[in-house]
Amino acid sequence: MSDPNIRNRKIEHIRIVVEKDVGFPNECSEIYDEIRLIHRAFPGIDLSDVDLSTRFLNYELSAPLMISGMTGGDPVTTKYNKKLAVLAEEFRIAIGVGSERSLIIHRDENEIIRSYKVVREIAKDVPVIGNIGANTLLDLRNEDISYIISSIDADALAIHLNPAQEAIQPEGDTRFNAKILERIEEILDHIGVPIIIKEVGNGLSYEDVSLFYSMGVRFFDIAGACGTNWILVEKYRQKDKITTTIADHLSSWGVPTPIAIIEARAAAPDSFIIASGGVYDGLRAIKNIVLGADLNGVARPLIREIYLRGLNAGKAFLETMIKEMKIVSFLIGAKSISELKKKPFILSSDMLSYLEQRGIDLREYKEIRGGTE
Q1: 76-103: per-residue pLDDT in tens?
Q2: Which of 160, 144, 84 shows the shortest CA–CA distance to 115?
Q3: With contact defined as beta carbons under 8 Å apart, do 242 and 188 qualify?
Q4: Which domains, ranges and CATH numbers included, belong to the chain?
Q5: What confidence tens digit (pLDDT) does each residue in 232-285 have?
Q6: Were both Cys, which of 141, 165, 211, 247 would link to 235 (CB 3.0–4.6 Å)?
Q7: Are the CB atoms for 191 and 149 separated by under 8 Å?
Q8: What element of type H or E holds 345?
Q9: Contact 81/71 with Cβ under 8 angstroms?
């Protein structure tokens, strides 16, 4: 397995995500505005009563947040992973690394290895999530999978699905056939940590989650179509005019984050659901929890703050987000994650119509949205 451009691609991805407009149209503002929580003039609790701590992979987190896997694989990326790890450890939230394919290709290069290992060296007391592409599994031995887990002492392995990105990427690997399912079944029997099936930003559907749930997977990161659009990221790297035209046509392709949460929970009622994709503030994060997510993942807003303004800006972003989550919880009278999942919510007629056409009964769904709680 070789990919001579992988290191440059890692750097280009960060630059494009930070400097270009690569979000979904309006980043789902209309959809999130159509999800209404019920304001309580008398919350029945004090703001100081709100405790959003939660357990994830046998760790106690201070808030239901994860820094989603973004980077690694080139010495330039080490400084970003180092800062992200500092934030994860300080705020006691989970953290993932970017795809570890580069770690396999360059396993003899200490600078590449360090770009990943620095995360666990700093984030010692929170969950660290490894990361590999589903299509890459076809090129790896079980020993390679064990290596990418042990190299960062990962608590779980995220296997990412990104067919839309690969279809537009100049070097795209569009192998997404049934052989991958066979490899995942083998890996489930081989490794000693949980597998997280995740998208990268176009969302997991009911069908996707149901398929992997039937195989024994119990962790899903739905990465909905509300945040970073990797079709557009690859468009900026693509020189073929036909492919860039197609990328423009697919600029809103995917399952929006709130819908993906509901589809995932409906397909896998007792699974752990991570909501990422456009989680840019505390209000959205709490809406995701009320809808049925267990944890929120944040990526682009944080890397942009660090890239453009430094570590303290990243701290300010997380402080604001967590405080907003607590205030919103207070305003709907919920002092814990379990109480949030019991609070009422109102959906627009468009969302209700969508769910009806997908065969999801909202009354029945509200009975199962508590999930792992």
Answers
A1: 999 999 999 999 999 999 999 999 999 9
A2: 84
A3: no
A4: 17-368 (3.20.20.70)
A5: 999 999 999 999 999 999 999 999 999 999 999 999 999 999 999 999 999 999
A6: 247
A7: yes
A8: strand 345-346
A9: yes
